[in-house]
Amino acid sequence: MAELLAVGDSDFEREVLQAEGPVVVDFWAPWCGPCRVVSPILSDMADEHERVRFLTLNVDKNPATQARYRVLSIPTVILFEDGEARETVVGARSRSHYEAAWDRWLMP
Question: Using CA atoms, how far apart are residues 87 and 81, in angstroms rounded to an integer?
């Protein structure tokens, strides 16, 4: 299971918006129970889908990015491509739900 790289307000532009290819960002907090359910799902997906970067963002430590993307509920997972938010999934969901939402980005 891959450990996802943490991103924050200071490097979000570089690591996510300027990245080549799709980037999935898991907006979470340590006190969030459902976030602990989503994390291993995304870690497993990161192992299997090398063309997509999977990152995490702690909303407690990075309020500017949380506000910019209007993340009002966590977990929220957003797929970015070409500097734009393309797909947003709010709440803890099954792996099959994420795969269906991101199908066109996950395929080689």
Answer: 9
Which of 23, 32, 38, 57 is labelled catalytic?
Answer: 32
**Edge-to-edge strand list for the sheet holding 84-90:** 5-6, 53-58, 23-28, 76-81, 84-90
Render each residue's pLDDT in the chain as its tens digit; 108 residues: 778 999 999 999 999 999 999 999 999 999 999 999 999 999 999 999 989 999 999 999 999 999 999 999 999 999 999 999 999 999 999 999 999 999 988 887
Compute the C-alpha angle 39/44/47, nearest 5°.
130
pTM score: 0.95
Tell me which of 7, 24, 25, 35 is the catalytic residue.
35
Q: Taking the chain, what is the end-to-end CA distance rounded to the nearest angstrom? A: 20
35 is catalytic: yes
